[in-house]
Design goal:
globular; 75% helix; two-stranded antiparallel ribbon; 1% strand; 372 residues
Length: 372
């Protein structure tokens, strides 16, 4: 984790250099929070204002420079990596390798994940919130503070993402293989279902969705977003794509041929790794595994699929897609690693069974020889 910290710090420097030559929202967040002369509590609203709320004490009260504010937010992103690391380590016991390297370490050091979580902006804060949430769901009662903080952070930045977390938690807890006491299931259901219900107006309002026509208004919103992003010059209009192709675009593009610039080519190598890892789920054992899987695996899969479907409808700009999918990919990685562990454990059990039969046959031969 020390190496990961300095690696993440390196990307703080890379992102800072990037902002010198390119437009960045981080500069807007810094300037607005540093020059804000109103009440700090007035910034405590969902969406972009919440980033200014978090930045305000550092940029305004303490008067930190842009570089230091960036460094603080990069540290928030690193907190997210710490908790995702604990989430993986606590729930995956076997060491898995890819090309001779520890697979978990490969996933922790993915460049695109660090690039978008090492700056002053939504990426670092929401990644921290997601990491806290994932970490807390192993023992929600014991880790109530982490669960509450993670949920609040995610809700304040992206209310619809909080809805996906709640949906995943509810379905995971009710369908997981663990024997969870009924009162705990009811507690989780009431907490998240109640939270989603209470905040439903805010969640729908964030995407300009009419509760009387959710599907229709969401389609209108996605078309407006796609048109706006396409007009920006770097958008890829995917509104006419079928859903599977939209999802593929969101998860795995750019892939070399459609890479937008040098950064896109660099990200294409990482996306190729995503394709290789996702392909491992195309296996006859995946459905049996899913039926027997833990609540955390099912929770992660529900969060990944539901959030991906929603985001794929509006993220027609490849640059935004590269940034947004950092929120959900670790949930997919957890499903993949858990499945690979299941496969490895199955092979180990088969080897042990064969070894046991071989030893029993050898014992029978010795017994028959001694008898004769």
């Amino acid at each position: 984790m020390n190496k990961l910290y300095f690696y993440h710090l390196l990307f703080w420097g890379v992102y800072y250099i990037y902002t010198v030559f390119n437009r960045s929202d981080s500069k807007n967040y810094f300037e607005k929070s540093a020059n804000y002369d109103g009440s700090w509590s007035d910034l405590l609203v969902t969406g972009t204002k919440f980033i200014e709320f978090v930045a305000y004490p550092f940029t305004n009260t303490f008067g930190f420079s842009y570089e230091v504010a960036m460094l603080i937010f990069a540290w928030f992103g690193y907190i997210g990596f710490i908790h995702f690391y604990i989430f993986f380590r606590e729930n995956v016991k076997l060491k898995l390798q890819l090309w001779g390297y520890d697979l978990l370490l490969i996933l922790l050091f993915l460049p695109n994940m660090h690039f978008w979580t090492a700056s002053l902006g939504k990426g670092s804060i929401i990644f921290m919130g997601l990491g806290l949430f994932a970490y807390a769901m192993r023992f929600p009662q014991k880790r109530l503070l982490a669960l509450s903080l993670g949920s609040v952070v995610v809700y304040m930045i992206r209310p619809h993402m909080f809805m996906f977390l709640g949906l995943g938690a509810i379905l995971g807890y009710f369908t997981g293989r663990e024997k969870v006491p009924l009162y705990q299931k009811i507690l989780v259901y009431v907490a998240f279902a109640g939270g989603i219900f209470v905040m439903s107006d805010q969640i729908l309002a964030m995407a300009n969705i009419n509760e009387d026509d959710v599907v229709g208004s969401f389609q209108d919103f996605s078309q407006v977003q796609a048109g706006r992003l396409s007009s920006a010059g770097s958008g890829v209009d995917i509104t006419s794509y079928p859903l599977p192709l939209k999802l593929f675009t969101f998860w795995f593009r750019p892939l070399f041929v459609d890479a937008p610039g040098a950064l896109g080519i660099f990200v294409s190598f990482e996306n190729l790794l995503y394709v290789i890892l996702a392909w491992k789920l195309i296996d006859k054992d995946f459905i049996p595994f899913l039926k027997k899987s833990t609540s955390l695996v099912k929770m992660s899969l529900v969060i990944f699929i539901t959030s991906s479907i929603a985001l794929s409808f509006v993220m027609s700009n490849l640059g935004i897609a590269m940034r947004q999918k950092s929120m959900v990919m670790y949930f997919l990685f957890f499903v993949i690693i858990s499945f690979l562990e299941y496969k490895k454990q199955k092979r180990l059990n088969l080897i042990q069974l064969k070894k046991k039969k071989f030893e029993e046959q050898g014992q029978l031969v010795l017994t028959s020889q001694s008898s004769s």
